[in-house]
Amino acid sequence: MDVIYVLAVSSIVVVVIFDYTNGFHDAANIIATPIASRAMTPIQAVVVVAVFEFLGPIFGGTAVANTIGKFLDLSDVAASVSMTIILCGCFGAIVWDLVTWWYGIPSSSSHALVGGLAGPVVVAAGPQYVVWGMEEFITTGHMTGVTKVLAALILSPIIGLIAGFLTHRLTSALLRGATPIVNKYLRLLQFVSAAGMGFAHGTNDAQKSMGIITMVLLMGGFIPEFTVPFWVVLLCATAITLGILSGGWRIVRTIGFAIYKIRPLHAVNGQASAAAIIFGAAVIGAPVSTTHVTSSSIMGIGASERPKAVRWRKAGEIVTTWFLTIPGSALVGIITYYLVKFVFG
Q1: What tens digit of pLDDT does each residue of 150-169 get?
Q2: Is residue 269 within 8 Å of 167, Cβ to Cβ?
Q3: pTM of the model
């Protein structure tokens, strides 16, 4: 059997596994707040989110896939080498996702994917094969490649913090004279906000895997240009939805209980803010971290209401993980590449 074909199939399988772990890892970020506020049972939350998670990649376009699929330029690298790099990079991201899930740390799958891919490329082919995008940004102001990816990943939690703060201040003012009966309607509203989060997450996150698979197909000569095939959309939508259905229950405790005490109004505001940011980023092709946006919006809500009640120490641990994810997953990807090179020559 042709080596390129075997590598292409193996790469696609690994990317699909990453897509599954992405959904598995990020499920908690989406379902934690309605569960913590007791608006939905875990089963209800997972089912509602899973349905809209599947619809997101199908109707959400491919702008993020184009960004992710073009932050590496391996056109001058042999297909066998470039596909091996993809394999090792995605494996690095998967390992990082599973390790942080095991310890209940809400890290970023997006950061893990970027680091996991960039690390093996630098050691196997050279840093020039990563589209850094910094020079173009300085000269033209247009963001591409890693610059665009990192800008989105850095700015989105800041925007999430501000959006959570302002949204909660506004809704609290509007509901100042409301009686406790309003919580009943806020809990029902969380079915809508959870659906919105599922759709936004599927739109943004599944496209990352779609972009990598399309890159693999282009490297192997299976498609003439970078255009995401519809079967790839369906494949990634299915994989991330199955991951959501599996649920990352360890992280639910961190997002739903360890940052701030979540009540119905907090949950609605947090999910509405996060969903708007994540979907907006998907429209402009900016890959953001659901983990970052969700966590920061909860911090913003807590800061707007009772700053001293926010567990800033736990928040600090999460932020530290954010900064460790790219180098950590890059290191795993590099080690994997050298192991593969040692075993297969």
Answers
A1: 888 788 888 999 999 999 99
A2: yes
A3: 0.85
